[in-house]
Each structure stands twice: as C-alpha cells, then as structure tokens.
Please model this.
Amino acid sequence: MPASNPLLDALPLPAFDRILPEHAVPAITKIIEENQALLETLCSALATEAELLVPLEQAEARLHEAFSPVRHLRAVLNTPQWREAYNACLEKITEYETYLAQNKGIYAKFVELDQSDLGASLSTERQAELRHALQAFRLGGVALAEKEKAEFAQIQQTLAATCAKFTDNVTDSTQAWSLSITDESRLEGLPERVRALLQDDARAHGESGWRINLTPPCVQAVLSHAQDRELRREVYTAHATRASDQGPHDPTHDNTETIEQILELRHKAARLLGYDNITEHQLETRMAKNPQEVLDFLGDLRDRAKQTAKNELESLRKFAQNEYGLEPIQRWDLAWVSERLRERELNLSDEEVAPYFAADPTIQGMLDLVSELFGLQIVRREDAAVWHSDVRFYEIRDSGGDLRGQFYLDPYARSDKHGGAWMDVCMQRRQRDAEIQPGVAYLTCNGMPPAGEVPSLFTHADVVTLFHEFGHGLHHMLTRVNCASVSGIEGVEWDAVEWPSQWMENWCWEPQVLQRFARHYQTGEVIPHALTERLRESRRFLAGLALMRQLEFALFDFLLHLEYQPGQGARVEELLSDIRAEIDLLDTPSFVRTAQAFEHIFSGGYTAGYYSYKWAEVLSGDSFEAFEEEGLFNPEVAQRFEKCLLSAGGVRPAAEMFAAFRGREPQSDALLRQMGLAA
Ligand SMILES: [Zn+2]
Model:
C-alpha cells in the first residue's frame, strides 16, 4: 500500500495525477470506519444543527468526495483495475449507507430535532434537509423489525452489485466488438472525417485499413451515412444485441438473467417497505403523484402524435422505394433514409453543418452564452490535474468575482470510455468550515475526436447533447444552497431533473445564438442565416417518429416496474412486443434486445423514471417560452430563472419552483409546439 493516499487528503480538487486504483479501497474503508465511530458519538450528542447536522454533513461529504473520482475513473478509464476498485468500494459504501439509514439512534435524534422548537427555528434549507433525511430513513428501512432490516440490507447489497454487473456486461460487449475493413468501397457515403477516425483506430490496433467499433459517434456515422446496406445491417445488429445472447456477442455478457435479478430485488425491497410494486416505491420521491398520472401523460402524448408519426413513416417509405428501391425499409435503413430525406426536403445534412461546429469554438460559444445570460465569468484553468489530455477544467465566477462552481469537460469518445453523455457530481456545494465549497461537476460527452488534420467537428446532435449536459452542470454549480443534501440537483424530484438540461437544449436551435459562435473551421465563415433557419426547421423533421421512440422506452420502463410479479418473471420481450404493437410503426427484428443494454433504467438511476425526459420537457419547453416571450437575452427573465430554479436546489418542490418562475402551472402544449405536433 502506498505511503500517502491522495483520496484521503483534504484537497480543493481530486489529485487526478496521483490517484491510482489501489488507493480506492483503503481510503473508503478508513473513512467509513471513522464515520461509523462518529455516528456512535452523534447518538448521544444534542439534537441541534451544530452538534448533529453539521458533523454528519461533513462526514458524508468526505466519503462522497473520496468516492466520486473512483466512480468517475471507472466510467472514463475503464480498466479491469478501476472496475475492481469501484466494485469493492461500492460494496462497502452500500453497506454503510444502509447502516446509516437504519440507525435508530441517529433517526431518533433527527425526529427529536424535527419536533423541537429548535427545529422550527432552523433555516428553510435545514428544514428541507430534515424532511429529506426523515424520508430517507423511512425509505432505508429504519422502521423495519430487525429480521426485515437485515433482509433489506442484504437486498441493497446484492442489488448494487447486480446493477454494476449490468453495466460491466454492456461495457464488455461494446468494447469486444469491432469490424476491420480493407476494401474502401464499403465506406462509400461516410464523410472524410469519419474515415480518418476509422483509419486512426485501425492504426492504433496495429491494423491496416479501417476499423469500425461500437462507440456512439462511429455507430451513428455508419447508420446515417454508409451506403453499403450490409455494413449498416452488421453494425446495427452488433449494436442492438449488446449484452445479450443474440448477435455476434459473447453470451457470458448476456444481461437477460441480470434483469430478472434486478427486478426481483427491487420488488422485494419495495414490498418490505409496504409498497405494492417497484413503481409506487419510486414515485415516493417524484413530482408525479401516482402511476395513473404518468400513464395518462404518456398515453396522451402517444395519441396526439401517432398520426403524425404514421404520416412521417409513410413518406420515408415512399421516398426509400422511389429513390433507392428499398422495400421494405428495415431498422438499419431508418437513420440512413431519414438523413437522405432530410437532405432532400430541407437541403440539410450533418456534413454541411458539422464543419461549423468545431469543438473548441462551440464549447466557448456555449460558455459565452451562459456567461452573458447569468452575468458570469467562465475561465479555463490549466493547473488542475486531469485524467486524460483531452480533458479541460474551468471555473465559474459571478460578476463580483466569487467562485460559483468548477467543472471538468471530457468531450471526445475513447474506446475505454463509457458511451453516452452525462453530468456527474464531483463535489457538492456546502459550508466547509469557514468557507463555501462550490459545486464541482464532471461533464462527459462522446463527440468525434480530432483525426489527422481535421479538428473535432460536432454534429448538431452532439451540440444539443453538450448543451444538455451543461444544463445539468449549471443546476449543480449555480446553486446557492449550502446544505449538501438539498443543494444543486440533490433533493430535486427525479422527474424534474431534466428540466434545466432540456431547457438548455433550446438554445441550440436559435439562429441568433448559433450565429454568435458557429464558424466554418476552414474558411472562418459565419454559419449562413439560411442554414440556421433550415436547422431550426429540422427540429420538427420526423419529430413524431422520434417521440414515439421515446414513448416506447418510457412505457416499457414504467410498465415493467409497475407490473412485475415474482411469480411470472420479468416478461421483458413480451412487454416490449405489446408496446411496440401499440406504438411502433416499423417492425423490430426478433433478434433485437433493447432491454439488455438499457443502462438508464437498470443501472443509471432511472428506475420507472425514463418518462422523466418527457415529463420535464413540459417544464423546460414552457420555461423557454418565457424567454421567447420576454426576450431571449432579457436579463430579467434569466435572473428569475436562476433564482427560481438554477440556484434553488431541492429545498422546495419543483411545482412550486415552476409556479414562482412562470406565475402559473406548466402547460404541456409547449412541448408539442416545439416539435410542431400541437393540434
Ligand atoms: Zn439529462
């Protein structure tokens, strides 16, 4: 064991230049032991803010701040060593969290404080913290009898490990597959920048020619642009069967059984706490009050968009048949035909747009926009330690120079990095002795890396993703709440967390925003007005089909968790085919295994919560309309948005935050209007 352990040092930022996998378990073990000793003393402390809440908050923060780099490095540098270190720490932390949530002595102290005169005199933040804590004790099983407590703890332990295994299986099957190409004619249609990337990847693996892998930009590029139908079919099949017993994958990574186990464990935990099913358990911490409210919401969207989606598919079919003799269109044709039709109808292609979105000016443009809106200064700093040379580090200061937040941005895909894009918490804003520790975020994207002479060029979809994640980042970093458990996104109802992120997406469609920073990477020419107008129009292009796809995922997740009964098992494929019969307009091949790689719901925290994207889009769409009505760059509306949402943490329910911002309840039509689907 190394002499000094950077995970145990109280540093302003994680020492990414020194943290090694072997530091993880010793650090987490030591902190947990110290925290457990502290919990013993807190049981006999006074039930006050200073004696109970402050020391517990500090102890919890220390543990989370030591664990966050471990969790993060497992996702962005997925080596067997990091994975093993993460899994070992996860086991210890899950055990500790359950021990804390079930600790009757500490719980009694929280109840005592809540019911005392002192409790009523606490700040609004602290009172919210108390409410959340009491709920967490209840949901952690504090009221269970000893035997059930032990059973619940065991379930949490096994569940955490099983969810981690789910992700490991997806990662392994994604990384294991590649396709070597030596005949360049198979790459017909693929843009030059994509070919250069595939060539780089082949070279890095000691091969000649081109190497196709399952990283998101590569799959996206092949499915949208490769003229070789067989190549599209091959890549589609590999991607749509990851972590299953279908397609080209190693069946030892099959998640079918993992899904059964996860559902069974979630169901047992919900039943122990007195809920009928997993969904009702999950809704306890959501805006939606009951399952029917969610089902009605999703059903209403489906009914209102279905005809549009049907018409869109019909026009795709006709176009594919007339122009390319493709009949019937298959799943692996959908993105390719859509892209061709978009070129035809809107005179717009990814390849025309991407040269205007080189990574560096695009990132800077987004930061400038946010700086102007909220009166911030966002500056890149070169002195922070990072885990890869692509990673940038920034700090956010307000107009008075006070530090508001800091973030790492890891923009490009790598084969050892998890797919998708996300924001994760590095440090939570909190009072740290006499100082304020600002929120620190990890922003992770998977844009196409630079290749040869060509810089990283983002598609417009990549730009939207970048803005989306930065919206989460703003919510985390601009908070002014100093109690860690209700600052930033903490304590916010899960079905409202996509509100700031999707609000941020709206800016990517505004011509006057894009013209500020989108410049051709070779000529320096500002993106033409006509192009931004076509881009804006393209938001509505095939929007009905895209909505149906999201509804398919949302309904599957919600019903799977609502209807699960141990006796009948998960019924994954049956349920999917029932939903597809109702919603899907194009046949799905029988080999497709959607659930087996659906990390959001099995290992990403969205249990019975995928509907949140659409649910929160009502809030984000309606909020953005306030900017459209009052002026996009009107500082008054931006300040109000910051005050009511971005800085407000989880102190108040989201419905109250929305009403404070908009002066009324949200209206779902905003979502449909943006998509051009409003009747
Ligand atoms: Zn999001």
Summary: The chain has four domains: 6-101+103-139, 177-253, 256-347+543-610, 355-537. The pocket of zinc ion is lined by residues 468, 472, 498, 501 (CB under 6 Å).
